[in-house]
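User: Sequence for Alpha-glucosidase below. Tokens please.
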Amino acid sequence: MTATWWSHALFYQTYPRSFMDSNGDGVGDLDGVTAKLDYLAALGVDAIWLNPVMVSPMADNGYDVADPRDVDPLFGGIEALDRLTDAAHRLRIKVTMDLVPNHTSSAHPWFQAALAASPGSDQRERYIFRDGTGPGGIHPPNNWVSIFGGPAWTRVVEADGNPGQWYLHLFDAEQPDLNWDNPEVFEDLEKTLRFWLERGIDGFRIDVAHGMAKPPGLPDMEVIRAEVLLADMDDDPRFNNDGVHEIHRQIRRLFDDYPDAVAIGEVWVYDNEQFSRYVRPDELHLGFNFRLLRADFDATDIRGAIENSLAAAEMVGATPTWTLANHDVDREPTRYGGGPVGLARARAMAQVMLALPGAVFVYNGEELGLPNVDLPDEALRDPVWERSGHTRRGRDASRVPIPWEGDAPPFGFSDNPDTWLPLPPEWATLTVDKQIADSESTLSFFRRAIELRRDRPEFDGLAVEWLDSPAGGLAFRLSSGLVCVLNAGRRAMALPDGELLLASGALVDGKLSPNTAAWLV
Ligand code: GLC
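Assistant: Structure tokens for Alpha-glucosidase:
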């Protein structure tokens, strides 16, 4: 593993629509992020990952890209991105963007041209159009379902006014899947990557990086499963097909022209050997390993997640990555049981994550201990809600805007009380301003932890050695000397010898309480 800027970096995921609204339209934007860079610098972040800001009808909050080489006016246009990149670089913060190569928006000129063209045309060959099955082609070409619910195929009306072919969309019908067997698709991605890299972007988080290649013949699914983000899907024909690795090699060859830029894949693949393929020396630099995020608050589960993540990276000499939250999953305090216990566990898990070797990803609001928000039906915006016929509420609960200051919603997020998702009044105690003023707050805890991780040499080690610990506990030592202890059990635990650097909660009689972690040197 060679040292690169990302090999021990702390990436901060900014969900732009929910971070800070600078123009009062109720939706966060890029000038909003720029306005809060000092906050991010004080938190100690090395890099920002921006969820998609390219031109988009926003059917899936920007994961439906209509022009990959421009920034949507909703986020302030391309000049706002330039302002953000310049200001971030002055603070030595890198800026990485989301890249969506698996699909485009249905509003993309390519898809519009495909709709206007006839079956078999070059225009249709950029996507995955097929004739239907059954009499007159009334049934979809295969039994695949969309991740967001409903079928993964939508039928189009041909120029003669009759129902015609079907096109594939693993997500929303407004996100048609591209045909990666068509060389034009990579040629266009190459243009997009060079466009942003030349403009000073420091890398990309590659959306659905296990999804671009489709299996020959598009065979039926044996097990019908819509939701895959948190499920084991190693047998799912829609994802992780071998052809995807040649695509990553092509992408990597391009990145090699920009040796300071990082490619990070969203890889929902769990088998260690299968996962490791994505981060071979000639593929992605980093891949999100979601095992820690999926682990229950249970010592055996957590240790297993850490061991497997390390093992997968080790197989190919890659940098391990760690993440507990993002815009697609429930926030940790909620996942770990809610209330004060959920929050205590979230802090403890953050401390475990920040001790591990490799790159870490923190999702905006994680540093404030924000929980999920129970939103009323009419507030829901995620396409999952509609596509699932109101059976799945979707991901809005973890996308609510950041509370910055003040005593009432929208807590300084916007001048406009009508924010794209409502902030709950009970977040009055969780605002950034209140937490900065409180040395015991979750934010103060994160700041201290990140500072220690960055400044102390004891955090630099790459090897993890497991130490004995009582049942329900977990303890490991980095080769550089840091000891991390977690109490996921029910009884207070004695701490090992050493100087206590930080604990995620108060000690009781010198012992580590349940739901608490500590660092010692
Ligand atoms: C990824 C994104 C998710 C998006 C989907 C489709 O899983 O993280 O938010 O809906 O891809 O682009």
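The pocket of alpha-D-glucopyranose is lined by residues 60, 63, 100, 171, 207-208, 266, 327-328 (CB under 6 Å).
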